[in-house]
Amino acid sequence: MGILVQREFTVTRDHRQEFERQSRLGTWVKMRHNGAQMIGFGGWAFGGRGDVVVTHSTYADFDHWTATRPWGAFTTDPERAEETRHASAIFAGRPRLINHSRTKIIDYDNELSEPTPFYRNSGDELASLPLTYGPQSILAECRYRLRSGSEAEFRELSAETLWPWLRAHDARMVLYGKDLLAAADEVVELTAYRSISEWHQLLNPTGDTKQVSAKRQSLIADRQTRLLMVQTDFGEKV
């Protein structure tokens, strides 16, 4: 299992372009040197707060996350500090752009998710750039509260039928996991779409997938959806 740290930053509108620049050229570059990946940045288009920008940072585990903290092994290692000196200088003023921040933690399934973070040693190859559809694409976050005892079937129907159908229609299943600070019966999906129109068109599966989708829906007691509009070109464009 990997760890996704989702952070909402309250940044005034006048400072958001600079926040993205310092992040793209500094913070997220340094993350790659640490073996971590930032897989989605933007603002909530629908379903979330409009006064925040959001990052989605992935780590191999909590030991990996801890190593990247100001007190952690990566930050206090002189060789690594020299390796990332240029990137660190770029985002030195980034904290001053942030008024507040809030954090959620998602424990995600490596086999069903795109991110590939790792505990990187100095001199190793950098973490790969995350895949992206680019600015104005959509990262849909769906949080499902499942009926008792239904998670295994929900996962099977999703992995064997629904997610392959989405991939066949040029969407990407980015991440599947559980919010460690939420109820135990809740699961989280992050799915990427090239545009909000693509998301809308793919809400209702067709063909044989329609019946599987209806069966999957019967396992869900409640659902909450937020749509993040991507606001950076950071990543490998697909």
Q: Please report the number of helical segments.
A: 7
Briefly note the structural class of the backbone.
alpha+beta
Cα gyration radius (Å)? 18 Å
Annotation, overall tally of beta strands? 10
Give the % helix. Answer: 25-40%
Q: Residue-averaged pLDDT, rounded? A: 96
Basic shape? globular
What is the end-to-end distance? 25 Å
β content, as a range? 25-35%
Largest sheet: 8 strands, antiparallel, barrel
Q: Unreliable segments (pLDDT under 50, ≥5 consecutive)?
A: none
Search tags:
single chain; two-stranded parallel ribbon; 10 strands; globular; alpha+beta; 238 residues; 7 helices
Write up this protein.
The chain is built from 7 helices and 10 strands. The protein is an alpha+beta fold and 238 residues long. The strands form 2 sheets. Strands 1-3-2-9-6-8-7-4 form an 8-stranded antiparallel beta barrel. Helix 5 (151-168) runs antiparallel to helix 7 (208-217). The longest helix is centred in the N-terminal third of the chain and has 18 residues, at 16-33. The protein starts with a strand and ends with a strand.
Ordered list of secondary-structure elements with their pairings:
Layout: E1 2-10, H1 16-33, E2 37-46, E3 52-59, H2 62-67, H3 78-83, H4 85-90, E4 100-108, E5 131-132, E6 138-146, H5 151-168, E7 172-179, E8 186-193, H6 196-201, H7 208-217, E9 220-230, E10 236-237
Parallel strand pairs: 5-10
Antiparallel strand pairs: 1-3, 1-4, 2-3, 2-9, 4-7, 6-8, 6-9, 7-8
Helix pairs in contact: 5-7
